Amino acid sequence: MFEAIKGLMGRRVDPFTEWCQQELFTSDMVKAAELLEKTCDLHLFSIYRMLDLENILNEPKTAREVTNELRLVDSADVTVEAVLWRLAHNSDVVELVENADGEDRYVSRGPAPDPSADLALKWAQLSTLGDEYLAARKFVDFGATHFVEALRDDPDLMDRVLSGREPRLAELWDQATNLDPLQDIHGKMGARVILHEFQGGDILEIGGGTGNGIRHVLDTLAEGNALDRVNHYLFTDISTAFVLNTRRAIRKAYPDIKSDWRYLDINKEFASQKIERESADLIYGVNAAHVAKDIVEMLKECHATLRSGGQVIFSERIRLDSRMMAPRELSLNLSIYHRTAAVRNADYRPVHCYLTPANWERVLDMAGFNDVVICPDLDTVGETFPHQYAAVVVAKKA
Description:
- This protein is of the alpha/beta class.
- The chain has a domain at 2-27 and 180-396: Rossmann fold.
- Helices cover 48% and strands 15% of the residues.
- It is built from 19 helices and nine strands.
- Helix 3 runs antiparallel to helix 7, helix 3 packs parallel to helix 8 and helix 5 crosses helix 6.
- The two termini are 18 Å apart.
C-alpha cells in the first residue's frame, strides 16, 4: 500500500483516500467536525466574557501580559495565546497587532456576544448525529468550564486526567480517546495502513495510552487474516495505569499474541530504557509522536530502534494552519505537560503539539528517514471535508 499511495497520490483519488472518504469521513462525521469547530469558537466567547478580556485588552498586550494580569500559572500564556490567536482569526472581537519587536499583541474590538443560545443549538444538532458524538462535546465543554480552575486554582488537574490519576474523570478521558468517532478514526486509519504496509515482524507502540492504537491494529489484522504477521508487540506509555489497563483488555481479547508491556518516556534515550537498538520492524503511535519535547531527537531514537527497512507509522492529528488551535486543545492546553512538552522551532515547529504536513516531512528528513508519505490526499479530502484533521504519516529507514 505504501508504494500504491506514493505512486497514486498524483491521481484524482488514490485507494487509501477513497477508503477514507467512503468508509470513515461520512456526512455525519463531516457535520460533527464542523459543529465542534463552531462550538469551540462559542466557548471562546464565554471565556472572553468570563475573563473580562474586553477590558483587559483595552490596549495591545501579549499573551504573557494577559496571563500575568489574570494571575494564571506559569506557562498558561501558551493556552492564552492559542485562545487569542483563534479569536483573532475566527471572530471580530479580538485583533492581532504585529509589532516591530516580533511579539504578537492582541487588542479588544468590543464585547463578545452571549453564546448560550447558540451553544444550546449546536449541542442539540450534535445530539441528532448520535450519542457517540457527545463524547467530543463533553471533552470540549470540560475545557471551557474548567479553564480558570486548571490554569490558576488546580494546575495539576488536567495532567492527572491525561495520565489516569484522576478517578472521577477517568471516564471522560476514556470516552474522549476511544468512544468519540472524531478521535477514533485515528486508530482506524493507522490500522488500515498497517494492514497493507506491514508485512511482519516486531511492533513497538509508543504513547499507547488507553489502547486505541493496539486495539484497532489487532482487530484490523484479525479481520484481514493477518494476525500472524505480529511476531511480538511491545506496548509502551508513561502512565503505568494505562499500561496495566490496556494489557488486561488486550490479553483477554487476544491471549495468543506475544506481547510485552512497558514504561517508556519518548523524551529519553530508548536504549537506556531497555528498548534495544535495531529491535523493531515497525514503530507505531496514535497521536503520540507529536508530544515529544524534541521531535527530531525522538525520531532519531526511532530510527536507531528500527531494523534496516523498518518503518514509522504515526496516525496523527495535523494542523493545516500552523497556529490554529484545534477544538480538543481547549481542554488539552489545560495540561502543563501538553503545553510545555514541545520545544518550538521557527523552521519546523512554530507552536507546541500538532505539526503541519510540511513540518512532518521536514523533521523526518532531519532524523534520517526517507520515502515519507502523508495520507490521505489532503487536497482531495478537503473538497468535501473542510475541517479534515486526521492523517497517517509513513516513513522508512533506508
